[in-house]
Design goal:
Number of domains: 3
Number of strands: 14
Order of helices and strands: HEHEHHEHEHEHEHEHEHHEHHEHEHEEHE
Strand content: 15-25%
Shape: elongated
Largest sheet: 6 strands, mixed
Strand order of the largest sheet: 1-2-10-7-8-9
Helix content: 40-55%
CATH topology of the largest domain: Rossmann fold
Length: 409
């Protein structure tokens, strides 16, 4: 095997003082919610908000003086870019990061703020990758691969090394898979320290490249937009697929709703912000809960760099899904005092009205009636039923507008 436990141990020594040794904590909040014994490795607290800073440092610090002077090139629209930029400026290495056109300004700004030069090229990562390779060929710069590199894998493997050092009693380790650098390093470390530990990978069902390759199947050409952008990789590395095939027992797929629920649980439980890719391990645990019954499970929380608008959308969708935020349509006689009666019935039932839309002019509403759409904050779906019953008992025709599946009830 190209990468050994000795390589990872040496990487761990090299990283001392360069990154954070992030906490590995038994989570009572997560364990209590899903009924399993869970330990979290919180790489979302890393210096750049992601484990990527580990491998980036090992790769960059190992360059010769001549290579450092020439500079490095990377392709990324997220965590790898920030990891390379962060350490490059600290090591005095010129760094150029290629990103696709249309990359959110926040990601571009963060990378530039860390000291790297950002070039926007192409409409996809694949096109940006071509532009980066052209620069490498023309200017002799060093390409820093995001996952398929022994130094990168050794650096990422220190995550697993630290986790098993703090919690040697783990039965299972679950890690997200994009290109496979993180799980490859962690699997090497975990299996060396505890040969009987089971290592399981997780991918978004929209980007199942590693799972398909290991199963001998074709990788789908089309892929959709995923909340787990950090693992939205269309093809795994050659080196990483070899390591995963030898050391990882299974690769589980999770859908978008499961990942959203995991992001929400992290925020509402242990109160930590986790990006979609970082939440994938918990999503797998929640989806395949029975498989892990009676075992102590370590989850690698790979990062926490989630756009604030996306995070707010995830949380609002979660409230709707759980019946904690609902839209009601109430038919009213268009007479004075009726709005007060409706709000009183909802308030007396413990509901909190967030928004009100009073519609008199819709063509399908009789001239002496009105539709009242109200958005109400509730405790849960049972509470919603109580509010509906109170409104109906008060003489109103009411229906629930279910935003979760688009139906009206």
């Amino acid at each position: 095997m190209t990468v050994t436990i000795a390589d990872i141990q040496n990487a761990s020594k090299a990283l001392t003082g360069q990154i954070l040794r992030t906490p590995s904590l038994a989570s009572e909040a997560i364990s209590g919610e899903i009924g399993l014994d869970v330990v979290l490795k919180l790489e979302n607290l890393q210096v750049t908000g992601s484990f990527k800073a580990r491998g980036a440092y090992i790769k960059l610090s190992g360059l010769t003086a001549e290579q450092k002077a020439v500079g490095v090139v990377a392709v990324s629209a997220g965590n790898h870019a920030q990891g390379v930029a962060y350490h490059a400026v600290r090591l005095g290495i010129p760094a150029t990061i290629f990103m696709p056109e249309g990359t959110p300004f926040t990601k571009v700004g963060r990378t530039e703020a860390l000291g790297a030069k950002v070039i926007l090229k192409g409409h996809s990562l694949a096109e940006a990758w071509i532009a980066a390779n052209n620069m490498v060929e023309e200017e002799g710069k060093i390409f820093v691969h995001p996952f398929d590199d022994p130094d990168i894998i050794a650096g990422q493997g220190t995550v697993g090394l630290e986790l098993l050092d703090n919690h040697p009693d783990l039965d299972v380790l679950i890690a997200p898979i994009g290109g496979g650098g993180l799980i490859s390093g962690c699997a090497i470390a975990a299996k060396a320290l505890k040969p009987d530990i089971e290592v399981i990978g997780v991918q978004s069902s929209l980007y199942p490249a590693m799972a398909r390759v290991l199963a001998g199947e074709n990788i789908p050409d089309e892929a959709g937009a995923t909340i787990a952008e950090g693992i939205a990789v269309k093809a795994p590395g050659k080196l990483t697929r070899q390591i995963v095939s030898e050391l990882v027992s299974d690769v589980l797929l999770v859908d978008e709703i499961a990942i959203e629920k995991a992001v929400q649980l992290y925020l509402e439980g242990p109160r930590v912000v986790v990006e979609g890719a970082g939440a994938a391990s918990l999503a797998a645990l929640m989806t395949h809960r029975a498989r892990f019954e009676g075992r102590r499970v370590g989850l690698i929380v790979s990062g926490g760099n989630m756009d604030s608008r996306l995070l707010s959308s995830v949380l609002m969708r979660g409230l709707v899904r759980e019946g904690r935020l609902v839209s009601l349509r109430i038919k009213l006689p268009d007479i004075p005092g009726v709005l007060s009666k409706v709000s009183g019935l909802i308030g007396d039932s413990g509901g909190n009205i967030i928004e009100v839309y009073h519609q008199r002019l819709n063509y399908d509403v009789p001239i002496k009636e009105a539709d009242l759409d109200v958005v109400v904050e509730t405790l849960d779906r049972n509470h919603v039923s109580q509010i509906l019953s109170a409104l109906k008992a008060g003489g109103f025709t009411v229906r629930l507008l279910d935003s979760d599946d688009g139906r009206q009830r």
